[in-house]
Write a structure and sequence with these properties.
Layout: E1 2-5, H1 15-19, E2 24-26, E3 32-34, H2 44-53, E4 59-62
Length: about 60
């Protein structure tokens, strides 16, 4: 699984961080950081939840 972020759409709402904190974080400047662009299958449920929670649809997952 590979995470894709549309950086032009991302507004740093942080919903992804709440859903998958081992994969996403918001830095001190309010910018999204992807901690692991290729998380393991054990993170799939959380990552898919993060993708659904993004209010601007900036996240997607490729298998």
């Amino acid at each position: 699984m590979k995470i894709h972020v549309d950086w032009d759409l991302c507004e740093g709402h942080g919903q992804c961080e709440y859903a998958a904190p081992d994969v996403f974080t918001i830095d001190d400047d309010g910018e999204l950081e992807v901690l692991d662009e290729t998380p393991g299958e054990d993170q799939r449920k959380q990552v898919e939840h993060a993708v659904r929670r993004c209010p601007v649809r900036a996240l997607s997952v490729e298998d």
